[in-house]
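Sat 14:20. Reprocessing the chain from the morning session after the first attempt stalled halfway. Input below, unchanged.
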Amino acid sequence: MKDLITYLFFGGIAWLVWRAFTKKPTPPPLANEPPTQEENEARHLRNTMQFAKDQHRALSKKQREQDAWQQRFGAAQATQLDQLSGVEFEEFLAGLFRAQGYTAELTSTTGDYGADLILSKDGQRIAVQAKRYVGSVGVAAVQEALSGQAYYQCQAALVITTGAFTVNALELAEKSGVKMIGRSDIGNLMAKHEAKAKNG
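Finished this time. Tokens:
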């Protein structure tokens, strides 16, 4: 009897060892299983909601900027621009161009590499050198605009002033393709903006 128990005991151990070595391991769950339709729909809904929130946030910010600009400068006349500081003039121009459908980004007030403002519209970037000035703006402003155009990788450059331009500045601008916007041109832009605001 004792021999039978010993035999069964060792036989049982041998069977367990054999079973352990011959048993096929259970495969782990597949990490790359395709998501179910419900998971796809839930992810799509989350992405759509996030996109809508981002768009709403961006449009709200743009509207707040435009409202603030309108309140501050909307009724201004060209002659009133003489009272603005240089930075205020740049902010005025940013709002004026935003009203024309441009994206306008102010550069750093120091070390701006020749551009006070970067305008974007229809895939084109424009470097703007702004001069809130009473007298005549010279060649240096055109050179700064060209420098800003190169540094900020823009396709065009503008010099905008509340003053006038010297003959040399106009000649260099013509040869280098820099567009010049003077006092009367700003007045025209403001009149267009005012008419647009009244009509709609």
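Helices lie at 2-22, 37-73, 86-98, 139-151, 167-176, 183-199.
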